[in-house]
TrEMBL record:
Organism: Pseudomonas fluorescens
Keyword Coiled coil among UniProt keywords: yes
UniProt keyword terms in alphabetical order: Coiled coil
Coiled coil, from the record: 131-175
Positions of region (Disordered): 1-22
Full protein name: Uncharacterized protein
Amino acid sequence: MTVSTEQPKQPPVALEPEKDVKAKSAEKFGEKIGTGCSKEYEDIIYVTAQRKFWLITKEVTEQLDESAALMSKRVAVTDRLERMQQLDKAGLMACFASPALSSFLRDEDKLRFDELDDRITKIETSNKKTLESAIAQSDATRRRIDIYEAENSANESLRNDILSLAEERKQLEEKGRKEALAKGYIEENGRLYSPREIKISGLIGIYCKYREASKKKAFTENDFFLKREAPIWELLTHYEKLLERTEKEKKVDGLLKEDITKRIEHLESVLAEYTKVILDLADLGIATPEFALNPESQRAGTLSFHDYMQLDKELDSTAKSIVTEFDKWCAATGDRATPPSSVFIKNQNKYLETQEKSRLMRQQAEKNLITVKPYRLLLWDPKAYTPKPVDSLVKASIPLREVSMASSNKPLSHFSLMDLRSYANKGMYELLKNTKIKGIAKADEDAAFTNYLVEKGCKSLEINAEWFEKGLFQPEKLFKFLDQEHFKVKSIQSPSSQKPWGENLQAMIFEDDTLRQLALFDNSYPAMFVRMLGVGIVPAIHGRAEVSGPKLKDKKLAGIELGMEVSLARGEVDILDLKLPDPANIKPITLEYISYKGEPKVLELGEYYLEINAKAWGFVGASLILARDLKVSSEHGKLGISGSDDAIEKTTETVKDASVDPAKPKETEPDVKLFFGAQVGCQVTGQLKWKPPTNIRPAPPVPGYARTNAWNTLAKLEVSVAGGAGASLHGAFSISMKDGRLRLNAKASLFFGLGASGSVSFEIDAKSVSDWLRMIRTALIENDMHRLEWIDESAFSYLSKLSFLGIVTMGDIAFYAAQTEARVNQLYDSMTNGNRASLIGYSIASFPDKMGYKEWFAGLQPEAIGPLLHTLCSSPRPFKAADSSETATAKSFDSTQAIVYQQQAIGFCIEWIAQSPVKQAFNKTQPNEAQRQFEEAVSRMNPHGVTSEEPKLDFCKNLYRLNKFMEEQTGKLGAERTAIEFRRSEYKNNISILGQHINHLCSTQVETSPLGFISDAYNKTTTVYSGQK
């Protein structure tokens, strides 16, 4: 066999054109920038999420420039809906997950968790329906059997099914918890928090300790030179001025200067930690009163706040002294002498003056913060702060990237990895399918972007600890390192190109202290999102700029456009001095309710608007910039605002298969929409302003009180103060008591229109309580003196006690409302015991301004009048009293004179009820408002103003008691006898008019006892009510 050695014929080789060959041959080995072993690169970038530098090639520089320009073009679109559509195409709107522990599980574990959760829910729902069906059985025997079987079945399913399923779910949840902790989140009670929130909470705890210590003289010292005890802040100021003076005087002994300097150093060391925690909170966006009162000088601010706390002590001591002095006076006289008017008036005026000084100091603090950049939220009451949970989680598949490019004239550039799809390999998109949750405030591995850069011949540089000095990044050390390692970067060859980029880096890079970094530059994706939207209008990283926000869609708030300030470094959006609605276009709010007769009623509640300052961060801040509409919402009574857009659900696409569109990773369906009212990333402070309705009753006769049409501050909105309404509010509006304070609870839509969701709850300011009482009286008259369904029992009782105290003392209701509920109860109880009857009778009968009393009585709730009449019917006792002048000599009155004042006071009270304005005439069958007020008040003649199960019988018994007391003869002659006889005659006439619908249905039989001449108590009295119950 012959073997051929001939090779197969090869196809001809196609040569490149000659000019191209020349071009290639002219290129020296290693000259192609960024390839092979070369150390020459086109540009250098800092990737904020990675906290890492990259030396990049010319090819990558051009591709990143192109992608960043495309993103800038999208962000610059003025039409908000089109802009969101453009961002959605870039893959930025669908990479979020709900903030739950289960979101941190791997895909198979997440599916199993959802399956378990669904099965448990179905079993529990089925058991509940079975039990409800059994309870609904009409047959009693069958019902008991079915209920027993349903409960037994539920217990069996609990043992056999739910417990084992719940245990498995718990184990998966624990896995999610561990993963969440590893990602940098903190979990408490099933809610996830960022390190920032936990840091703020921890600092506030430390701050509270220092603040309490300052109240106990921990920051005061006895000073040798001043020869007195003084606050350290005051001493520091004194010694600094002294040092300044000694330095000007050349003859001063050097040892004296040294002593003064050491004294200053000692005082500063005592304050160091206190001052540090105030500044740390300010770095995190929270202003304590010490900071707010003087942002430029913490020492001066702390000294001012020390003055404020002294005012606070004065308020507390004045309130205590009023109660103490009242009790001392009464105890010293055996309850036989009335305290002079000055015991109330003088101390009340002092209290109100001090309160006004406190208010002005806080008002100044609020004004100061408006001028400080960046804006901080005022936290006047640190105990009110509650940390905010995260509103959404970011998946690892999010394609948004943020870099600082040395060659760019912008401080930061943003782009989507989706826009690099034509340049990258498929490996990057496989990595973008990752559904895991990204870590928070930590350097990110960022495998997808890293894969792209490495493939293109780029080189990464880890941040070196030697590049920092006192925690601050030193860019010249980075440039020196590049030179030492023989790296050549075209974009930073000259010092002039290094300087601006170096300054940008100093604004972003700090030593690896996560929490400090959050304070100065937040590298999280939510903050990155805000910077992407604001970088085009803010020239520097630590700069701020005003941007226009969304408009309010609801008709009630129409025309209001949000003015905002964007802080790039923090990724925050500040909303300053927002008024919702616009005060110039406000219409009165009305409350529709059903009367006791089942008839629809309308109550005018006055005019309201919110004066808001807010700080929004993360995706909520982004939503305010992006969205077309502003949403006012509330979660558990906590007010929030956010951007919203109904169209977002229509524009957010869901791609199930990457093969359909390689620009989108597989399984990008979001668990929560980005702009779906996520208001938990927004801290709101401000005031609820209120102008009372014009038809409410006149003000009580308080000296110096003048009615104005000015706006009142109805409530203060503290940062993160959770209200008490929330889901528990059944109607549109209610008044309740919480923690001893009066609260207004309402659907947010009542104030802010149908576009607002949830409920809000505000503590009613003490100064506004008097106006609210008059408004409630108007409603009581409209409701024929029947209870109002929108005021809960405890609140109504509290308001009645305030009214009572206002009557018997003629003091300012605001003063009593500012006290604790316990103090109000204490004073009320001391006033309603029978020993004070003569004192109160004298106060009413001798008070010169009877018209003031009459106006105050009109529409007064029966719960306040009843206890007053009950007290005035008590046995008269001798007493002493003086007029309102402090120099007046006290006069003594015996029990015979005392009864005259009590009878006169009762006569006046009944007369004022009879002369109340009414809408219909007095009637024997259909009682009008005054008749109802009289009946309800008499039936409540007891210390607590309550009725029994037989209120009509109570009325009859108490009417007999009133009449019997008014029949008591005084034994006086002359003018006094004439006056009291006239008052009795008027009393009888008014009683017959007011009670014409019920008096004739009451009858009382008295069986006289042989001892009856001693006291009526020995006689047997039987009272009967013969009408319909």
